[in-house]
């Protein structure tokens, strides 16, 4: 990979690119991982357009690799790829993968997938996120699988500061409040933590009208952890009100 800047564009395309593509199919995950982690060096030489044409099929395949560290490396590369390819190309080719990662069986992949949504929202803006990410995240909140629901809540907590108060109040907050009524304690105390993170984002009137009452209800929950996190969030509201 380090030879690409030395050899230049033409020689890299002729001699090195076929090797990279071959190594992306190597049986050892560390080999595939090293190719992905050093793609920037090649991108600087041959340009993102040619790189994407050559590598995109391999990247899509690696995004579903059986080794989770390979999938993780791909996730970390996606925001850079998205910024260089632009909105249209990203929507067509890579959008579906980003939601797929939120449902991965490995926690590190799910967490990285949630952070990936945040970084994409930062890159393309809240309007794009509202159109392409928010509806799918909201749909996941209603998923009967509680781990998928948990990751949707995590994605909301990461995206809300980026998308801003209006989207948070109109789209995120109603589903979060509804999730607070779930029967699973893990869901409910994560809702409490999420509501606490939303306090600085929304207007005080929303805190007083909606968030506080939801937290009061959770503070009376039979589960000790739910009560604890709800009371922690209520203390944040009280401190902010005094201040």
UniProtKB/TrEMBL annotation:
Gene3D superfamilies in UniProt: Leucine-rich Repeat Variant (1.25.10.10)
Keyword Repeat included in the entry's annotation: yes
Highest taxon in the source lineage: Eukaryota
One term under GO cellular component: nucleus
Keyword Cell wall biogenesis/degradation on entry: no
Xref: InterPro entries: ARM-like (IPR011989), ARM-type_fold (IPR016024), HEAT (IPR000357), HEAT_type_2 (IPR021133), PP2A_Regulatory_Subunit_A (IPR051023)
Keywords, ordered alphabetically: Repeat
Spans of repeat HEAT: 16-54, 55-93, 172-210
Organism expressing this protein natively: Brassica oleracea var. oleracea
One MF term in the entry's GO annotations: protein phosphatase regulator activity
Signal peptide (UniProt feature, chain positions): none
Protein name: Uncharacterized protein
A Pfam family: HEAT
């Amino acid at each position: 990979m380090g030879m690409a800047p030395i050899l230049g564009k033409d020689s890299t395309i002729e001699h090195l690119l076929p090797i990279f593509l071959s190594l992306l199919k190597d049986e050892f995950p560390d080999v595939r991982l090293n190719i992905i982690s050093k793609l920037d060096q090649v991108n600087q030489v041959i340009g993102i357009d040619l790189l994407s044409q050559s590598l995109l099929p391999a990247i899509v395949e690696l995004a579903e690799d059986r080794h989770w560290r390979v999938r993780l490396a791909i996730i970390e590369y996606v925001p850079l790829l998205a910024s260089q390819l632009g909105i249209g190309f990203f929507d067509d080719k890579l959008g579906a993968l980003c939601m797929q990662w939120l449902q991965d069986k490995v926690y590190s992949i799910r967490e990285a997938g949630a952070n990936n949504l945040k970084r994409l929202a930062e890159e393309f803006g809240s309007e794009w996120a509202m159109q392409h990410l928010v509806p799918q995240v909201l749909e996941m909140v209603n998923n009967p699988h509680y781990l998928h629901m948990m990751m949707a809540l995590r994605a909301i907590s990461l995206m809300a500061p980026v998308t801003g108060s209006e989207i948070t109040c109109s789209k995120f907050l109603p589903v979060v409040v509804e999730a607070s009524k779930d029967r699973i304690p893990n869901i409910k105390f994560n809702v409490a933590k999420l509501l606490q993170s939303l306090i600085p984002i929304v207007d005080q009137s929303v805190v007083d009208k909606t968030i506080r009452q939801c937290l009061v209800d959770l503070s009376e929950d039979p589960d000790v952890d739910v009560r604890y996190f709800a009371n922690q969030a209520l203390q944040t509201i009280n401190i902010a009100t005094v201040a």
